[in-house]
Amino acid sequence: MIAPKFHPYILPNASPVKEILDGVFAKNPGRENFLGFPGFKLLKSKEHMAVHKRLPDLVIKASKLGRDYYEPDQNIYRVRRAHKIQRFIVRNGFRTLVVPEKHLYQHGGIWYVVAPKLPVNLEVSFKSEPGKQHRPLTPEEAKEVALVCREGLLENAQKGHLVRLINNDRVCLIDTEPGSRNFKKNYKKWTWIPGVKSLLKFIVAQVSTERLYLECTRPDSKAEVRKVQNGLISKHLSKLVALCAIPLIIALGALFVAQTPLLILAAQVLTGAAAANGLSAIIQLSGSIYFALWTRSEDGHDGIQN
Known about the structure:
Blueprint: H1 16-25, E1 40-43, E2 46-52, E3 55-61, H2 74-92, E4 97-98, E5 103-107, E6 110-116, E7 124-125, E8 133-134, H3 139-150, E9 162-164, E10 171-173, H4 179-186, H5 196-215, H6 219-257, H7 261-295, H8 298-305
Parallel strand pairs: 4-10, 7-8
Antiparallel strand pairs: 1-2, 2-3, 3-6, 5-6, 9-10
Helix pairs in contact: 3-5, 3-6, 5-6, 5-7, 6-7
């Protein structure tokens, strides 16, 4: 069973697309890829992504099961991420970005992604490449993509994950794979330590915006990404100061006025909370400064591009 929060993303039973897919998959249930699947044409020689002859305007994506870093629910979260990005784009009034409208389809216990086949301009590149037209990210485009990254909604703002469309030249965030889920799961055993969850979110946002910075070739576009990054760091550090200082001030005030055993106990509890928050702040502060500096170093650039 799929959680109710994902129900809005599933192709409705009355959908003509679902009716066609039901017929196509009826004789081939539970396919993990489209190799040798009658009627399907592979895209970019990828066995998990294809177009069916009866649905030429749609891309069907399998779940890449069998790879150790993919899980059965990966496509579910991929579609949910696309809808989250779309809502973020609309809410902030972005003018230069689009994201494919993705839906879920299930057959044979496997979830597939169904998305429109977009008019991608393969002759254009954000970076200078032989045989391609160089059309780099503008400052407005870079800023909007950076804000999506800062929100934790896009990890791979690099070649192959960002494309331009032929019909309106807008930037399409074509890959909405939630890669940070696997990253965070690797450190799940450490999340009981105060501040680790918040630090992991900061790391994901910091690395993804730095990847975007490296993708930009115009100095003014790079400057816009840096502004977003610096805003992320300032906001994060301000939260850490508040996290540590506010409970400490309350605890000191309670100790100062404590006259009865009950007030003394309350003051001790608040002091303990302040100490825990202080530990959390120290962990996040040290980790945040380290990763902020690392991502901007040569070693960091080599690491996040590979």
